[in-house]
Amino acid sequence: MSDGLVLVDTCAWIDFLRYQEGELGNQVAVLIENNQVAITGVIIAELLQGVKTEKQQQQISLLINSVASFPTQELDWLNAGLLLQKLRSRGITLPLTDALIAVIAQRYQAKVLTIDKHFQHLAVELYV
Fold first, then answer.
1. Smallest Cα–Cα separation from 51: which of 18, 24, 97?
2. pLDDT in tens, 26-72
3. What does the radius of gyration of the chain's CA atoms come to, in whole angstroms?
4. What are the distances in angstroms from CA 91 to CA 9, 43, 84, 85, 113?
């Protein structure tokens, strides 16, 4: 159980790190203030792939070391693959990363803060 933690998706972290005032970033700031933020490895990888400066690298390192982490388990990969297979059989193709984030959030019974439309197809509770 996540004890009220919210898994913050990559798009929300980008808004938080990049812009002075953004609705999504402001929500992240409130969650940080309330110690309700969680991250997971796939989100960290997505953030790191976009790093362009040493300052950004330092910001992400600080973030990684400051918030709760939901570790990925072997079963998460299996469940993400099965979920994607089920969706594809219905004509819906989604990124592996989003499916993995969704199954991790489900396992931890955590809400997800995102504006990514892919999550409308995933059985996950969104933080609004």
1. 18
2. 999 999 999 999 999 999 999 999 999 999 999 999 999 999 999 99
3. 14
4. 24, 26, 10, 10, 25
